[in-house]
Design brief:
The complex is a heterotrimer of chains A (about 220), B (about 120) and C (about 575).
Chain A: H1 3-6, H2 10-19, H3 31-59, H4 68-71, E1 74-76, E2 79-81, H5 84-108, H6 112-142, H7 157-189, H8 198-222
Antiparallel strand pairs in A: 1-2
Helix pairs in contact in A: 3-7, 3-8, 5-6, 5-8, 6-7, 7-8
Chain B: H1 10-32, H2 37-59, H3 67-74, H4 78-102, H5 114-118
Helix pairs in contact in B: 1-2
Chain C: H1 20-24, H2 30-60, H3 70-106, H4 114-133, H5 164-193, H6 206-237, E1 248-249, E2 252-253, H7 261-294, H8 302-315, H9 333-343, H10 345-359, H11 368-391, H12 393-399, H13 403-433, H14 439-465, H15 483-516
Antiparallel strand pairs in C: 1-2
Helix pairs in contact in C: 2-3, 2-4, 2-15, 3-5, 3-6, 3-7, 3-13, 4-5, 5-6, 6-7, 6-8, 7-10, 7-11, 7-13, 8-10, 11-13, 11-14, 13-14, 14-15
The chains are: A mainly alpha (about 220), B mainly alpha (about 120), C mainly alpha (about 575).
Chain lengths: ~220, ~120, ~575
Amino acid sequence: MAEAAETDQGPLTTIVNDWSSDVTTFKAVPWGKAMMWIFLLSDTFIFTSFLVSYMAVRMTQTDAWPEPSEVFSLEAFGVPVPLLLIAIMTFILITSSGTMAMAVNMGYRKRKVAVFWLMFATALLGASFVGMQAFEWTKLIGDEGVRAWQNPMGAAQFGSFFFMITGFHGLHVSAGVVYLLIVAFRVLRGKYDNTSFEIVEITGLYWHFVDLVWVFIFAFFYLW
Amino acid sequence: MAEVGQQHPIKVYFLVWALLFVFSIASYLVDFFAFEGHLRWFLIVVFMLLKAGFIVAVFMHMKWERPTLITAILVPPLVLIVLMYLLAYEADYAWASRIVYFGDVVEPIPEPPPSHAAVPH
Amino acid sequence: MATAEIPYQETVPLHHPKTWIGKYVFSQDHKVIAVQYGITAMAVGLVALFLSDLMRIQIAFPEFMDWFVEDYYYQSITMHGMIMVIYLLTAFLLGAFGNFTVPLMCGARDMVFPFVNMLSYWVYLLSVIILLLAYIPGLGGPTGAGWTLYPPQTITEGTPGADWGITTMLASLAVFIVAFTMGGLNYITTILQARTRGMSLMRLPLTVWGIFVATFLGLLAFPALFVSAIMMILDLKIGTSFFMPAIVSLGQTLAYDGGQPLLFQHLFWFFGHPEVYIVALPAFGVVSDLISVHARKNIFGYRLMVWALVFIGILSFIVWAHHMFVAGMHPYFGFFFATTTLIIAVPTAIKVYNWILTLWKANIKLTVPMLYALSFVLTFIMGGITGLFLGNVIIDIPLSDTYFVVAHFHMVMGVSPILAIFGGIYHWYPKLTGRMLNDTLGKWHFWITFLGTYIIYFPMHYLGFIGVPRRYYENFDSSFYPASAQLLNEVITYTALVVGVAQLLYVINLVHSYFYGKPAGDNPWGANSLEWCTPETPPGHGNWGDRLPTVHRWAYDYNVPGSEKDFIPQTVPQGQTS
């Protein structure tokens, strides 16, 4: 890479040079990766629109808004621990991000069996995340009586936004699990042996983005 | 395009992995110890941004990308801050209007008497 | 600009279809996809045109069509607006022009992901079908909420299509957004990552720049519409209250409570205002190229034109609430949004001045594409100036919801982009088919359309000033409705019918010239940009034969002193003239 020669010219010069060069603007970025980044940018706008809507409706709300740390508490050893399930889900998603990052790293070393197992582990963790989300939904619907259109603890929009936003995020996770498994098996079958393993990195970008969204949902939905 | 890969010492990933756990626990503790008001918001947002920053920078390799890609991806979302700020600003106004015109709790409007519906316009 | 970088496309094999279906139906060739997009968009656009003529007859002659009841009128308004803005203009400018010009003008063999590009078209077709499903008898017809779909009235009882019409509309929009995203990612990635040797961004024709910025706006703005469509479907189908406040409708207290109707308007216009520029920017680009080619002169202030496009794009995200001055939003917002709106007039005015300065002392050839380009400039100035009126809160409030608004947005984002589209079609048809369009038919079509739209929309400003409200099914015998307004309405309606029928000339021209048109040759207009440098006309699969072209100059070297021809194509090395 020509990075060494360019380190002394400063980021602004690099930006100007890249944008005014021919053939590619993002140097050494494969098409798929550029496309995935731009897609994630678009997806950022979707999730932000969801969260901003949530903010606007919650701030204009005159009914009581339920206390999330009480609603989402879980009995552990006979003691209610606030947000226990959410904490576990967060740790699972972070761990899956870690295994994914390792898979990308192994991909560039062309150790495809390691890549397969790490991606498989990521997919498993993702699937367990979705499972726990299903458990959380069941608990909220069955025990607390929250519905998308009503909520015995106050403002109906609590349930509406909760199911919509976590549901949309859960869909992203589920799609990610499928995507991960497809790529993992293709890697194992040797589809990418003669080309590069950039597809692993592209899959990784998507997966980390899902984790990133969870960071914001966690902060704004469970801690507000 | 063989040399495009992102290869970095595995140590970095483990470090960030650990840091993410630490920040998650920290933001969890903010709730556990029930901090209130500005302090709570400040801590939650700081930990959130730290986590997001580390994920983007290290796991998504943004730290090692050229500044061209970094700015192209990270600058456009700034317009969302305008949307967020203005909607938050307006939400206070809408909330205040609801309090002024509907009292502090909006009761469901009672069923109008049958005669009401029959009044000709 | 010495470079060692080899375009990736020269190293990867292209997908070669073997069957007829693979070549022309489920084709991955960007040119075929462009034609598919174009034909679908024009077909659905003719439906919308037909609806507008029905509405015009109803306004001018209320007794003429007894069967055309209020519901039909509102449904026609909604479908006309939505089809024209989304399914015709957005789809045509980005789907058809974007697909056709981007790879050719960048010097690429195809889009970067042809398969995704193909899916984009088929998903778009699906969205059109879902949209038209509402016309199936028994479903209650399409929604009559107006194209802005404001809650609560959109989903409350009494609005036409409040059950199925609105559902198909929202579902169709969501599907369209998926289609647009697949196409848009392709355009952006192709422009950024798959140009040919020597093609820097600042050597791209302005058409590509317009499409680039518009696509970027689309990728960032459509999410807001997507989100509001999802939330509205949930409000409608499972009874959430995102947008629905406590409300008494037709004497019944509805189950909704505590929603925020203004939120929908904010989200809608956070999408809707960039959408205006999604439609306008490609038109700006196309017109810049047409003017330069047919005036045989380089575009004035190329760099300024590019930066103006970029600044309009950025600013378009912070002006959205000027559509909501009378919506009851926070009173302080009027100042902020009026200011940003007026600032956006600066880059827009720069573009208009640059077009005019390009024409200054130029060797203007009044070909059909040029006529369309010139009429675009005129119409856009007209619509832009009324935009300054409406951008000021204090003038906007009395003019809100009158025909002044109708005149403004039809001139600025209805007629103008359509004129640019016609200009582009007359310009690129020879490259697409190898035959010229008929000149006489083209001129008839142009003069009827151009003068007709002026007769239609110019008097509407006056109607607005005297207070005639828009979206009214019938104006009855109101005291504020003078006889002159009725006369004008009749004139407008006659003209609208003539203009509507005149579009048949254009359809006939397209079909007839495909078989019997004059052979065009490789470069009938003497243009410089890369699409005119292909080895075959129409360009073959892969566009460039064995080797991608190399670009040595910008696309605007016309009438350069010392060259024997009056144009120097982009592939000619510096220092040579042909």
